[in-house]
Design a protein that fits this description.
Shape of chain A: globular
Distance between the termini of chain A: 61 Å
Largest sheet of chain A: 6 strands, mixed
Oligomer: homodimer
Strand order of the largest sheet of chain A: 25-24-15-16-17-26
Helix content of chain A: 25-40%
Chain lengths: 642, 642
């Protein structure tokens, strides 16, 4: 056995023992050391770099490590074997997440406008914005030797009288603080209550003078990114917002790798800790601090996540999700409370889980479908959520069908060497001059902001422009020469969008053939899914009246370019709308509106699910879509052909 | 500041710093070091001995420490001040408890017979012995690609069909294990359910072949002693039993001292930990081990304790219990579950709290009243529970009145130098020869058992005999000389029941004037309470048709002797019955029988509460009762006068 010492910039060393030849990434996982590994150890993503600072490793050299980096001691942990005592420096994974996605969704004016528009659309569709939480003033007689009713009965009687109900439930959390609050306030209090028909549950009690804040937490748990809002449950206003990388990412970038990981001994607990302790609770604390809230003032939570994320959040075995016949433990559940999961909010807070409808179509899509309002229209609409899984819902007020495909994290900037979320410094739009091959671009942020990386909408533009300028082939390989085009010693081509001198980055911002290939497969997954789902219904793309595009790809998405690379069907551009993070806006709506919560349950019951892997044509379609724009150019009649 | 090091036989040292002159017992409490201190630092009980093994203490010499002990380094911590760095050895408090009370209630044949008789009496009074927990076999179709209902819906449908109900609740604990159990058992399972009208809650799920154990925990939380039973909820049989000292005892022997202690910073948590982590959870583990059970197989719990014990158990502020107008947080509550308190049983187990009816008449008495069955009789009965608090209930099927008095722990052998519970080695009955003053006694346990100490029934006999033989005055002072009668240098007299050569003890077994005084005050509290309560109703002792005596005093109680020392009223001896630990048998019944639970709620609503401290005659009565038998001998006409 050899001693492996993991060193960190901001925390204590972790020492473990490993056998000769053991894989360093596996050693790290066993020791619960967080190393970013989106591809889960397949040497594909190049993210699991560590720096050798003592001892030796038997480490293959790959294209992800430059000669200079190798000389500095950088190694890819997934291709490194333990052969001696060794010390490695592990980059701070939390800051790695932050560097890739910094700012809250809804951070930009555009996103906020889209959110407000979504709310307006849902309201117009007839959903009342109101929930069952209230604050009521309760005044009681002060007890005396002649009036010796105990505190809890005294309060129950007073609440019954004030609310006109016959049953009042006092949970333990209220019982525990009752004596103190009643005496501190001379029996003049406010109760935060939940009202249901003829009964009331008292969620909290505070003195009459105190400021009664009744907050809720809406959270979109994406495979790659987690976005959250804290709202005022009494008026729906947003009090805080934040997003962060999903801490589970070190166990794999996609749901399949995470399910495999949770099957290992102690795996469920690790995955659950990664999302709750490392991601959600820190987000809650950050938001509460910024808004001057106590975490216990959050009395309800709504989660929208895919089926796997929902199972991992609850610590429920997710393996059946991926194993035939693909039967998850639950689609819907209403028996989960904050203290079941250790989420740092009011301990008895109910957790609303947006319902799943299949193994790969989850609560993010049912909540997103609510937000899209396609369920309220006569016209045939296609709702596309561009996440790590791509999901589609097609239909109208009469019927809805859904399906899912695995797109990978490319739309959110994952698996792209200079990829990032649509936040400050992201290149969100790009033009390339066909002659000079010089780019011009639009960058998210204030004027003068230098580029940091490429978000999804920027990647679409760059690929579309590279193709339009004849710089890449339909397969995404560079076919022109130039100052900005270069090839490394493995022959991999890349195009430099910004040299580091002009960028807010320590290296050139470029797009590589690997990036392009990753993105082509992502867009191919989406387009083939659209094709196969419509075919199964005997529909044609021409019958689509409207397309609603959601996800972290960015509000700068250029629909024309997305069509031109074969990502979306070739229909009139005015039929496309970008609706932002529909999972989060759906979760917000379910949290704030009792009617919306019921509506999503109804939608989920009425939505059918198409398992694409059961469709015989899907693989062929996918392969045909892995070109720019497609092997069958007739599908894109409006495109100028080169 | 000086360093104080607490040393232990079986655990690590605890080091803290204390100021010059700080009281050692207070230093220990702050450091959460368990030192037995029933009188809470009033130098009255002599239990808080520690042994000086290094450094110095400024320590008063008291009658509780012999010269020999003092020379060995023994000091009373409550009269010791820190004046230098010091090291003291702390006796193991857990074994101190055990030495005073070793064996489970119901341990003896007599106690078990009494318990069975109680059950029979309650059944005869019309209470059905049945609860709402069941085990049902549930078989589901195995899912397939054509039958993709998720696990939880599949189970809910199957339970609805099997139980003929329209609503099924699956708590989170079941959801979490569902996938594993269903697949391990090919969807052929057993559910442990709770049935209520048209709905069912699934408490647990296990494979079809597994042995389904549905257990319950009945627990009597006495101020001094905690007694518990684990039962089979399906047939009522007792699977395990145990008792232990209440770990809170180091914070004071009576409820007032404990309430004062819980008011200090962090006090509520400390008191709660002392009863749950140090007392109840170890009892549960001991019992489960002896019965071959998993603690998670306990699906329900019933607690009978006095009002203060109930508040401390829940971690609810108990201060209002002792402060005018004496308003506790709750009499009844049904919103407490095992995981709210950290009790090591099934996490969602409901905790039935036997209802309190006043600040000093709690669930132990309402549960005990059920067990006494006085509520089912036309005759006027008096129910007396001889605990650390003495409580009385007087009445019949028409009305019931209750009251409480503070008796101290003497009935359970506490505050008595050689006192112990009625268990192996306890002198439970005694005769003294008037001429020779030689005692003969009956000892609990097998033949040949040597005496260890004196239990409550034995103390009654000894005092009664000492008085009958003219050895003590009506005030309890020794007035004869003899080989077995001696006086220490402070002038305190004592009578040796057994010299250490003839005892299973390291010292002579004796009864001292302090012991007698403690007991006289305990019996005086009881008798004066009886008098004052009857007077308030314009009743006379002659109108009592029956007296039911409960508590840890022991089944050997000699009612004639109890009357002769003025503890009980002078009525016909055949009117007295000893009914054992009625709090525990009541808790057992409430746990096992849903009808009993409802009956106790009904009894508690119909029982009035007399606050003795508001009765102007009580103090005078008490003082008059602190004689043997009483200052007014006419109250005891049947006694031969000496």
């Amino acid at each position: 056995m050899y001693k492996v010492t993991f060193k960190f910039e901001n925390s204590e060393d972790v020492e473990v023992f490993a056998a000769l030849g053991e894989n360093l990434l596996e050693v790290a996982k066993k020791a619960n050391v967080a190393i970013d590994a989106p591809c889960n150890g397949n040497a594909a993503c190049g993210k699991c770099k560590v720096k050798l600072v003592g001892g030796e490793l038997d480490s293959a050299k790959t294209r992800h490590i430059t000669d200079e980096e190798y000389a500095q001691g950088w190694r890819l942990s997934c291709v490194s074997k333990v052969i001696a005592d060794v010390e490695v420096l592990v980059p701070d994974i939390a800051s790695a997440y932050r560097s890739r996605m910094k700012v809250a969704d809804l951070g930009s004016t555009e996103e906020l406008q889209i959110f407000e528009q979504t709310k307006a659309d849902i309201a117009e569709a007839g959903i009342g914005f109101k929930n069952d939480l209230e604050v009521v003033a309760i005044t009681m007689d002060v007890p005396s030797l002649d009036d010796t009713m105990p505190d809890n009965e005294r309060l129950v009687w007073a609440v019954e009288a004030a609310c006109g109900v016959s049953r009042v439930k006092l949970p333990f959390a209220v019982l525990k603080k009752l004596a103190g609050v009643l005496r501190a306030s001379s029996f003049d209090v406010q109760c935060i209550i939940r009202r249901a028909e003829d009964k009331v549950e008292v969620l909290d009690i505070l003195p009459a003078g105190a400021e009664a804040k009744v907050c809720g937490l809406a959270i979109d748990i994406g495979t790659t990114t987690v976005s959250a809002l804290i709202i005022n449950m009494l008026d729906g206003s947003i009090l805080a917002k934040a997003s962060a990388g999903n801490g589970q990412i070190r166990y794999g970038a996609d749901v399949i790798n995470r399910i495999i990981e949770q099957q290992k001994e102690g795996g469920r607990k690790k995955l659950q800790d990664a999302i709750i302790k490392e991601t959600i609770n820190p987000l809650i604390h950050t938001m509460c601090q910024s808004a001057g809230l106590n975490t216990r003032q959050i009395y309800r939570m709504c989660v929208a996540g895919n089926t796997t994320m929902n199972h991992l959040l609850l610590g429920v075995d997710a393996d059946p999700v991926r194993m035939e016949p693909y039967i998850p433990t639950f689609f819907e559940t209403n028996s989960v409370y904050a203290n079941d999961l250790g989420i740092d909010i009011y301990e008895h807070a109910r957790i609303i889980m947006a319902p799943n409808i299949g193994s790969y179509v989850g609560g993010d899509i049912t909540a997103g479908t609510l937000a899209s309002t396609i369920w309220n229209k006569e016209e045939m609409s296609l709702f596309i959520d561009l996440g790590t899984n791509g999901e589609l819902v097609f239909g109208n007020a009469e019927f809805m069908m859904s399906c899912a495909c695995s797109a990978g994290p490319a739309f959110e900037g994952g698996d792209i060497s200079c990829g990032m979320r649509a936040t400050d410094g992201a290149i969100e739009a790009c033009k390339i001059d066909k002659e000079t091959m010089e780019p011009t671009f639009t960058i998210v942020g204030d004027e003068g902001q230098k580029p940091v990386g490429l978000c999804g909408s920027g990647i679409i533009d760059v690929i579309s422009e590279l193709f339009r300028c004849g710089m890449i082939s339909p397969k995404g390989k560079f076919i022109r020469e130039g100052e900005r085009i270069r090839h490394d010693k493995y022959g991999m081509g890349s195009y430099v969008l910004a040299f580091k001198e002009n960028a807010a980055s320590v290296k050139d911002i470029e797009i590589t053939e690997v990036d392009i290939d990753n993105f082509i497969r992502a867009k191919g997954a989406i387009f083939s899914a659209i094709r196969v789902m419509l075919q199964s219904l005997d529909f044609d793309v021409s019958m689509i009246d409207h397309v609603y595009v959601a996800g972290g790809i960015g509000s700068g998405i250029n629909m024309k370019n997305a069509v031109s690379i074969g990502m979306f069907p070739d229909i009139e551009l005015e039929k496309f709308s970008y609706i932002g993070n529909s999972s989060l806006s759906g979760a917000y709506t379910m949290l704030y509106s009792t009617e919306a919560e019921a509506k999503v349950a109804e939608l989920s019951h009425n939505m059918t699910y198409l398992e694409l892997s059961n469709e015989p044509t899907y693989m062929d379609e996918f392969v045909a879509c892995c070109f720019i724009p497609h092997t069958d150019a007739t599908l894109f009649p409006s495109l100028e052909m080169y």
